Amino acid sequence: MSDIEEPTHPGPPQVKxxxxxxxxxxxxxxxxxxxxxxxxxxxxRGTAMLLDGNLKSAQDLxxxxxxxxxxTLALEDKCFSLIALQSPMAGELRRLMTITKVVAEIExxxxxxxxxxxxxxxxxxxxxxxxxxxxxxxxSTEANKLLRLSLDAFADENVSLAxxxxxxxxxxxxLNRDMVGAIFSAHAEEQIDLAAAVQLALIARYYExxxxxxxxxxxxxxYMVTGWLPEHNGRLRAEYRVRMAAEAEDAADNDAENEx
Amino acid sequence: xxxxxGLAIAVVAGLLGAGLGSWWARRPGTEGLSQRRTVEPSTAxxxxxxxxxxxARVVRAVTDLELxxxxxxxxxxxxxxxxxxxxxxxGRHGNALVGAALERVIDGARVGxxxxxxxxxxxxxxxxxxxxxxxxxxxxRIDGVVAAIEDVTEARYNDRVRSDFVANVSHELRTPVGxxxxxxxxxxxxxxxxxKTRMAKRxxxxxxxxxxxxxxxxxxxxxESGPTSEPETLDMQSAVxxxxxxxxxxxxxxxxxxxxxxxxxGPVLVDGDHSQLTSAVANLLDNAIKYSDEGRGIKISIxxxxxxxxxxxxxxxxxxxxxxxxIPEADRKRIFERFYRVxxxxxxxxxxxxxGLAIVRHAMINHGGSVEVVSKEGTGSTFTxxxxxxxxxxxxxSSFGEANAEDVGIRDHRTIEDSEA
Lengths: 260, 421
Description:
The structure holds 2 protein chains of 2 kinds. Chain A is mainly α. Chain A has helices at residues 13-52, 55-86, 90-122, 130-156, 159-188, 194-226, 230-259. Chain B is an alpha+beta fold. The longest helix of chain B has 37 residues, at 153-189. Chains A and B meet through helix 1 and helix 4 of A and helix 6 of B.
């Protein structure tokens, strides 16, 4: 008798197939978290590069983005093949559709940090005032926090956290406005030239956009769990307006008939 | 570091290979790792094997090990994961990347490669991890994999501090000596009286710089050897007043106002060395003046703070608050190191020996206290000294009871940061 026995699962072969499918779903979720971790690491890394003016590490970060793109494509492909081969329904289908959207948002966030690196190279040598350096550090911290919270919301299927992200994002938007003010005054005091001022404004915008992508991830997570998107509210409002307009028109017609 | 990791792996692999491996293999329905056949011929080794795998202490020891340990079978299926390694299993954020590295080295070990990967995480918190895996061999056949994850953050940091210190100290001492030697050479060759005077003056200033550095080094080494005099009971107010007087000339030159405020009525008594405490406050004040914009005010606030220990652990606090350029986050942890410079180009202009904050830190250590910094670039820095209150104060000051402790305790460092932001 052999010591080693094949582990067997009870039931017909379809059950086995189904188990493999569920493991693939779990792997997919782990893959999204890995992609998110890669993207969120680029934020403090890119910021350190920007503040220290380390061009070597800028190039490393730009090269590392290829790995992120690669993983994004692999995760997307996996989603498509599962949708095609396993005909998922309801919640599982929403999960797979959500992942295709979420990975794109995460991938875009990492691209924005590549943009930060390129902007940093273009303004190399510019002396940044402590105020601007402080604001960049704060924006980076906030953007990283938002991305990580959106990943937490995804992993835990936490709708209330996902719905809180727009409010948390307000902080980052405010920092962006502060940054624009600081750039204007630094340029007015001739601390930085116009070219550097433009690059700095773009950099602030990149961080701010990372926050927006995190908010989008949160919306998709809400959809995954509840099947409802903020855009659905908009659609309802549009339908309501159309209905009200039609009713008003009917009422006007009735009034006209009564007068006759 | 690498050696330590290697050694740890060897020990763990030995333990697991002999003990855990067969322990796991005896579980019903587990494939692989069966050593029954291989150990049977030798009674001696089989007895050792039995004693190991029945000894739950071995398993518990490995489970509680600080080093993360993961063991898989030959197909990569996990058979053991200790507590420290659990966080990487369903990891999120940085841990997800450690998990990915772990998978890669395990895949390598399954085909016989001993791989090692460094994972440097920016976090927050920033961490450096070393991930390594080796095949577990049974009669020249790969029977499984043992992988280890070690947190080397602290070790890396200490290495950097040590190497930076050696580089910095030689720089600080060599620069003035080198400058003097070149200046003296020019002095010898020159006939022009004006040039001679200029060279001599610069030699003087380099001399001054060097003697300041040496003086501070001596102060520091005295501090490091511990308290020298018997502690006396003194009011922190008097140390602060003295420090303000000592730095008043520099403050006037920069046009900076220093305002001292007191949060409590009556004296704030501590037991300690008056000159050490004065020089600690003076050093902080000196920095605040140097790194503040002209015309900006500096606030010193003296108060008391209760700690988790209640009134028994109450501290006297002195905060020096400036609205200056602030300290970049990456440097904040390191500014108390000897000769550490945030910006070496600027420190040349502002002067200073690079030892001031090291002196402050050691003065605090000697008094059983601490120094902390809260800072934001472009907004300013707050340095807070905490020194245990004198027992005399705790006996005479009846107001410092449990009820009072609460409202004093609210004033923590976070609120300062928030109000600055």
